[in-house]
Amino acid sequence: MVGRETRPIRRFRQGLLVGAALVLALTQGCASVSNEITGSVRKPASGRTVAQMSSAELQNAVASYGQAYERNSKDKTTGLSYAATLQMAGRTDQSLAVMQQVAIAHPKDRNVLAAYGKALAAAGDLPKALETVRRAQTPDYPDWRLYSAEGAILDQLGQSDEARVLYRKALDMAPDEPTILSNLGMSYLLANDLPAAEKYLRAAAARPGGDSRVRQNLALVVGLQGRFAEAEKIAAAELSPKEAQANVAYLKEMLAQQNTWSMLKDKDGGKS
């Protein structure tokens, strides 16, 4: 399916690669900040969220938002929508460039600064992303979205304990908010605590607003625990049966490779 597979399967497979690496080495460089700072992003005419769109639909959305942005680059909602679709399309540098312009036009808007921080993090500039998100926060009137976004950045910097403190502050302000629960679940995935990751991702998936990405991450965590049939069932709620089967087969392949390397290491006396 190379070159023709759908975006959901590509995105899910990328998640599988990250998950397998986490089980092996507990690395966290591939974690991604949640797409939660998109509350003002408009839904496309199709009614599907950005995360649910196929490659063709996403490209159409990029073109449509791009035209609107060209007509009025200072409109906040248009800029946020355009940057979000560019990010989902993998055009990270262009998404960041758009968010830079939106931040210049709206330098004190906390939602804009939070989205700008997210774009910086996606582009790999974690220190600046953290600085931007913290600058947007106000101690006397804190925003749960900023707490959660800051936590996601700290998770990428390896500061998981500090990140979870922020997630719980965010949950105090917005109980059962699925994006916070999802970030908390992914934080535990980074720590290789799969049962805890499943607990929070399952809670996020059960809440109104828990989107396709949450359920795909839940399927990943369930599959990493060896419950492949259940993982396929969860994935099938978002993808076609064929795509769900392909994702689970890919996960099995990745885990088999992991076990092969583990056996080689054991055979070599742990010196590899």
From TrEMBL:
GO biological process per UniProt: endoplasmic reticulum unfolded protein response; protein O-linked glycosylation via mannose
Entry-linked InterPro entries: O-mannosyl-transferase_TMTC (IPR052346), TPR-like_helical_dom_sf (IPR011990), TPR_rpt (IPR019734), UCP035836 (IPR014596)
Entries under PROSITE patterns matching the protein: PROKAR_LIPOPROTEIN, TPR
Keyword Repeat: yes
Keywords assigned: Repeat, Signal, TPR repeat
Extent of the TPR repeats: 144-177
Molecular function per GO: mannosyltransferase activity
UniProt signal peptide: 1-31
PANTHER family, sorted: PROTEIN O-MANNOSYL-TRANSFERASE TMTC4 (PTHR44227:SF3), PTHR44227
Protein name per its UniProtKB record: Tetratricopeptide repeat protein
The species this protein was found in: Aurantimonas marianensis
